[in-house]
């Protein structure tokens, strides 16, 4: 991706974020059921983003490790250890998001 497309996408998101209060409802209209529905939807999106980005990060980590082992086979043990540690940390972030999503699904902490 070019810097220009990233900047354009960022500015579009900021613009949407700035105009979103125009469509906000009154505070009396927000009920417990509405908040619970939105917390479930938000948890689903968070889980989707976390799973997708964790998969991309793991793919890049494995790719870089295989390339570095191909360049220097004598350092394969050190690289493999660091790779496994990195993969564990990446996967733990996805598991934390899953945990938070399950809390929002079943406990409904914002419901009245």
Explain the overall architecture:
This protein is 79% helix and 0% strand. The chain has helices at residues 3-19, 32-71, 76-106. Helix 2 (32-71) runs antiparallel to helix 3 (76-106). It has a domain at 31-106: F1F0 ATP synthase subunit C (F1FO ATP Synthase), CATH 1.20.20.10. It has three helices and no strands. By secondary structure, it is mostly helical.
Quickly describe the structure.
The protein has 112 residues and is mainly α. The chain contains three helices and no strands. The protein has a domain at 31-106: F1FO ATP Synthase.
User: What is the CATH T-level topology of the domain at 31-106?
Assistant: F1FO ATP Synthase
CATH superfamily of the domain at 31-106: F1F0 ATP synthase subunit C
Q: Please tally the helical runs, counting DSSP H or I stretches of 4 or more residues.
A: 3
Structural class: mainly alpha
The CATH class of the domain at 31-106 is Mainly Alpha
- How helix-rich are the residues, as a percent range? over 70%
Largest sheet at a glance? Answer: none
**CATH architecture term of the domain at 31-106:** Up-down Bundle
Terminus-to-terminus distance:
44 Å
Mean pLDDT: 82
**Uncertain segments:** none
Order of helices and strands: HHH
**What is the percentage of strand-forming residues?**
under 5%
Work out the radius of gyration: 21 Å
Dominant shape: flat
Number of strands: 0
